[in-house]
């Protein structure tokens, strides 16, 4: 079944692995490939119901939100990974070389005779161009727009007309474009579809600041409550490398046995699966509540965390709600040993966009 004149485990083996993908439709193909995409996984792998209805909230979350009679949402702070993007220029160049190889082996011009597997795969159209270099794809814009609309449904008192919203983004174009798509989806959720000019005037004040790096947000969420709340909603757009270090710092997805080449098959149920943690459009939400009927001042503020729109238990208690004071005390070491002002300083040359 292989191609003549080639070494084992080289191109022919790759072609044989890819051949079954030609025998199924696009949706089935995505399901077959999705477990191997890692951080390039689609968000719908976590929420299959979104394939049917991108605005569906799915089944109600047990314990979320807290009962409105006792606690009301005070602030939503979120770290969001950009939506689905195009391959980078480097990957596109690799794909172009592979496509050229398929064409040559398919018609036999590459030497070693014709290869039937390569011939079938050579019908694939290589349409990626270098200029799309890592930019947000149309699917990524839909990811962000739909996420904004779902969050507006989950947090109607915070994401409401006239509220002050703060948007922060990495300087990468796909993150800035994700912020734009999110805001557009939010406008549609709050005001419906209308002319561009009117939409721009419907929001409360929003600010976008461009950071040269994604890392500085790691401690920012817990720090925010130490200051007066200037915005009830803070949405920060970054990368997988923004979210994954933050979650690791917080103690999540720690496996007892490290993953390596020799135990891969036995680690299929491991906690650390990046495709399930930080797919495209991944989001980490911190919801701060004010509880007026608290028995003491320290019980007045509570926090819930959602990862990809699912409640995330706190590592130190296993519970799905925590006193803010306990959250801050648990991460006190990180707070005290992070040179926040230095790490998060902004180069004055970086542009600031107000809209």
From TrEMBL:
The alphabetical list of record keywords is: Hydrolase, Membrane, Signal
Q: Which InterPro entries match?
A: His_Pase_clade-2 (IPR000560), His_PPase_superfam (IPR029033)
Catalysed reactions, semicolon-separated:
1D-myo-inositol 1,2,5,6-tetrakisphosphate + H2O = 1D-myo-inositol 1,2,6-trisphosphate + phosphate; 1D-myo-inositol hexakisphosphate + H2O = 1D-myo-inositol 1,2,4,5,6-pentakisphosphate + phosphate; 1D-myo-inositol 1,2,4,5,6-pentakisphosphate + H2O = 1D-myo-inositol 1,2,5,6-tetrakisphosphate + phosphate; (2R)-2,3-bisphosphoglycerate + H2O = (2R)-2-phosphoglycerate + phosphate
Record's GO cellular component, any one?
membrane
The compartments listed are:
Membrane
Keyword Nuclease applies: no
Using the UniProt record, give the first listed, main subcellular location.
membrane
- State which Enzyme Commission number(s) the record gives: 3.1.3.62, 3.1.3.80
For this UniProt entry, the molecular function terms from Gene Ontology, in alphabetical order, are: acid phosphatase activity; bisphosphoglycerate 3-phosphatase activity; inositol phosphate phosphatase activity
Signal peptide extent:
1-26
Reply yes or no: does the keyword Membrane apply.
yes
Q: Which family does the entry's similarity section mention?
A: Belongs to the histidine acid phosphatase family. MINPP1 subfamily.
Q: What is this protein called?
A: Multiple inositol polyphosphate phosphatase 1
> Per UniProt, what is the name of the gene that codes for the protein in this document?
MINPP1
């Amino acid at each position: 079944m292989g191609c003549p004149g080639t070494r084992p485990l080289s191109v022919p083996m790759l072609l044989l692995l890819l051949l079954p993908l030609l025998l199924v439709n696009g949706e089935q193909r995505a399901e077959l490939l999705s477990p191997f995409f890692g951080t390039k996984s689609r968000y719908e792998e976590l929420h299959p119901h979104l394939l049917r209805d991108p605005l569906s909230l799915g089944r109600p979350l047990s314990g979320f939100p807290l009962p409105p009679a006792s606690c009301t949402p005070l602030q939503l702070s979120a770290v969001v990974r950009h939506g689905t993007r195009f391959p980078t220029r480097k990957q596109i160049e690799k794909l172009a070389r592979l496509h050229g190889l398929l064409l040559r082996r398919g018609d036999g011009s590459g030497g070693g005779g014709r290869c039937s597997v390569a011939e079938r795969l050579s019908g694939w159209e290589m349409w990626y161009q270098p200029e799309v270099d890592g930019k947000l794809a149309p699917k990524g814009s839909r990811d962000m727009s739909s996420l904004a609309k779902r969050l507006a449904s989950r947090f109607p008192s915070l994401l409401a007309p006239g509220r002050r919203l703060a948007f922060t983004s990495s300087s990468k174009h796909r993150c800035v474009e994700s912020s734009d798509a999110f805001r557009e989806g939010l406008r549609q959720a709050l005001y419906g579809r209308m002319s561009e000019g009117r939409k721009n005037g419907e929001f409360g004040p929003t600010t976008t600041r461009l950071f040269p790096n994604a890392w500085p947000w790691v401690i920012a969420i817990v720090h925010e409550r130490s200051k007066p709340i200037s915005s009830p909603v803070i949405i920060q757009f970054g990368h997988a490398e923004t979210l994954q270090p933050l979650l690791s710092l917080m103690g999540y997805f720690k496996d007892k046995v490290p993953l390596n080449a020799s135990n891969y098959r036995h680690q299929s149920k491991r906690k650390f699966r990046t495709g399930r943690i930080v797919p495209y459009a991944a989001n980490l939400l911190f919801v701060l509540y004010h509880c007026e009927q608290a028995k003491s001042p320290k019980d007045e503020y509570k926090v819930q965390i959602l990862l990809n729109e699912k409640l995330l238990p706190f590592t130190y208690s296993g519970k799905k709600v925590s006193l803010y004071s306990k959250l801050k005390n648990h991460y006190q070491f990180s707070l005290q040993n992070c040179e926040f002002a230095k790490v998060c300083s902004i180069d004055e040359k970086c542009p600031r966009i107000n809209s």
